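Page 42, continued from yesterday. The earlier attempt failed because a stray header line got pasted into the input along with the sequence. Redoing it now with the clean sequence only.
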Amino acid sequence: MSSTAKPRVLIEDWLPVAELGIESRRERGAASALPPLSFLHIWWARRPLVASAAVALAGVMPAWSDDLAEAFPDAVEVQDERTYRRWLLHLVGIWGDPVHGRKVIDAANAAGVKLKGNGYGYKQAFRNGIPRTDIDLLHKVLIHTWGHLPVVADPTAGGGSIPWAASRLGLPVVANDLNGVAASVLKAGVEIPSREGAALVSDLKYWGKVLVKRVEERLKPFFPLNTGESVIAYIWANAIPCPRTDRLVPLLTDKWLRKTAGKEVAVRLVTEVDGVELREPRFALDFGREVDKVDASTGIATRGRAISPYDNLVIDGDSVKDAAKNGLMTQVLYAVAIRTAAGERTFRAPTQADFDAIAAAEERLDEVKPSWLTTGILPSEEIPAEANYDRGHRMYGINTWLEFFTPRQALTHGTFGDEFAKLIPEVRAALGEKADDVLFELALMQGKALNWNSRSSSWNIFRQGMRSVFEKHNFSFKWTFAEFEGATALYSWSLDQLVDAYGGIATLLDQTGAPDLSGQSVLERDVKVLQGSAASLNLEDGSIAHICMDPPYYDNVMYAELADFFYVWEKRTLGRLVPGYFRDDLTDKDNEAVANPARFAALGRRKGELADLDYETKMTSIFAEARRVLREDGVLSVMFTHKRAEAWDTLGMGLLQAGFTIETSWPVNTEFEHSLHVANVNAAESTIMLVCRKREDRTDGAKVYLDDIEANIRAAARDAATRFQHDGIEGVDLLLSTYGPTLSVISQSWPVYSSTPDADGRDRLLRPEEALSLAREEIVELRRNRLVGKAAKVDSATDFVLLAWDTFEARTFPFDTARLLALAVGGLDIDHLDSARIIKKGSGSVSLLAPKERLRRGTDSNQPGVKPEASSFEYIIDAVDTAFYVAQVDGMQAAKRFLDKHGYTDDAGFIATLQGLANAMPRTQVKGSWVVPESGTLDTLCTLYFPSVTLPEAEDVVSFVEEKPDTLFEI
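This time it went through. Structure tokens are written below.
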């Protein structure tokens, strides 16, 4: 290391949050344009590559200094701070101005204008290969700073975004995960392509075709095809016997197969033939004008219950579940999506050949099942009793992992597993050392096939294609489902997906740092994948410079429960190559760091509390282990996303107890795109990057209480908000950005005790949320002063409306954040605001009500709200909204009479509220129409009657379309 004992790194001073937010959302903008890592094998809640790269890199790059510039006098990239920061953007692939580009695109969309190109002027960041000259200079800077290339480790690496992004830049990487499926994804998506590159593709194609051909030959008899046709999907319904007639009831939620105008297709039930009632219905297809749209839209199953088509009486939800649990639920094929010899996509009814093939497949599975269970081809494991997703399986009679598949689907997947096992010695004999790399990648075909071919995959009538099992992060039960054609289509497609994904991953790696000069060596990459607990890493003390991690998000996703779906199959394929990854019968849920209430279900109401405590304990152990392996001068960066304050409290406590100081935090909006308030909704799901250092133990021995550091907490929050405001951070992001500085004050004095003792009168450790509430109060006061001025006095309810518009910049926003804001404003309660008709509570969200929605009449007239005939108002916002309502309904002259009657044209509080709303509400227009109608009413009202109110300039999104972005670097 060249200078100080603890180099200050770039992320402690700066992170390009706006650019990263836009590029992160752009990276995920279209399912077909996702990074190839996303197509290799499903993993849940992957971080965007561009954000991962920026955080991993900024955590080891030194903060700019004159000394750095002097050390590299010939490197223009480090000669001044502005150029140095632009270089970081270049290194992560941001080769233009995404902020301006996003404005242009939003404006074009709002105006109905079609842009030439993508609107940004450069490719998605992850697609831009970084030149070797940049990589070589980066490595020199890092070696100058750290003494050697710094190692980046991710102890909870999951889908691999962080290790892949770091490895791409040539940084040594350690990637660990507890879950064997995740560790396999890391090996296949990061380790192998970093070592072998695109050179492995030809072997993957060759041996993949051998494997697919063998599977196809064995399965052809069970998937008959009509002459010239190819099957896109077989479409099935779960079915139960009618409890009154014993006739089979297919549980269709509707009868549509395609809704495209002029090309409609729907299925019609045939329940009798020539006057003879059928025990099992047959299915006919209607096309175009033949379709009875009312009947097609009428389902047999809805909200868990069914209506028998035989007597039109209800079969209640309990009866449906009981039938399923008692083994009476069967599956019935009711349509086949096909492509004709002429290339037309259409549908046909099932034929007798289809039914015969299904029966033959079931018979064949019965023959091979005993031996396949014995030799480890088929999974035999039961679904654990402790589960959060019972609605997707156990409630409907699915108790083993094999029961997620029909007999023909199970035969299809089992045949692949059997042929894969036979292929292993052949490939090893032919390819030698690289054989297992090829086999490992080929085994991932199985994961792709499982996700797209089970009783939980389904038919999408709108996109006319299949949905995967994990379109959502759960095991939602599918009343109808879709089956891939298993002989010629499924594994052929899976191989194409694998080759494209691996080839894309490897090519992106090969392109970054590719040799510029003849004879220049290939960029070496060092990747180490570990499988095990993040609380017990197989690493030396003090060996890691940057631990960059994206830990499990509290209770967002139960990774282990979801991964069991793949684990039980893949331990019989991938497990033949890496048995250490699949030691246990199922994934390790006991050591998984998630707030999992199912593990404590036997304890009744306390299960949530104990799940929180368990998560905190495990995260503390993980952070303590991170502290052990981190260099004394090392950096810990933690990416975290969650709406609930409890999650942040738990994570913060884990960091504090493990011995870290939190230096700063950066909000990057990776989750939700909110474009110029056009949607009028704010999901507020930024990812917060917490930057931490090892804490030195205090030696003074004095007890520190919250009261002792309250002033410091408020000052830190205020200073951070002022700084971030200057950098253009607003709204929820501004609120969240103060979490790091607030936790930093606590961490530097830790342990800190609450000002309120426990129930026994003893000192208790401070919970981070107690300090974060002080920070929110400070930010609220800071923003309130900006909106209405320090001297103005308004009530708490009015403050809430002003701060809600200012914070969320939208009418609808998350419930939990609204609750915290209400508390910070003045101890308000969300239920009180709801009863006052200021907001309306929804499912996980709240919405500010428009003036017309706040109208009170009759017996309600003594309640807060809009009351044109009232003589006085409890809250100033009620008076303002009433003025707006009168103006919108009866015109501006009527509004003037209302204002004069109450003396509001000279009322300081009323005028201050108008000024605050003018500053807070979105002043956005689309082709001259106000996105938020109240903004237009306010504009007219103030122009006519309140000349002292300053109106910010309105923004018409169409004006952005003509502007052109600058580029940061030559492309």
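Notes: Residues 672-679, 960-971 have pLDDT under 50 and may be disordered.
Reminder to self: strip header lines before submitting.
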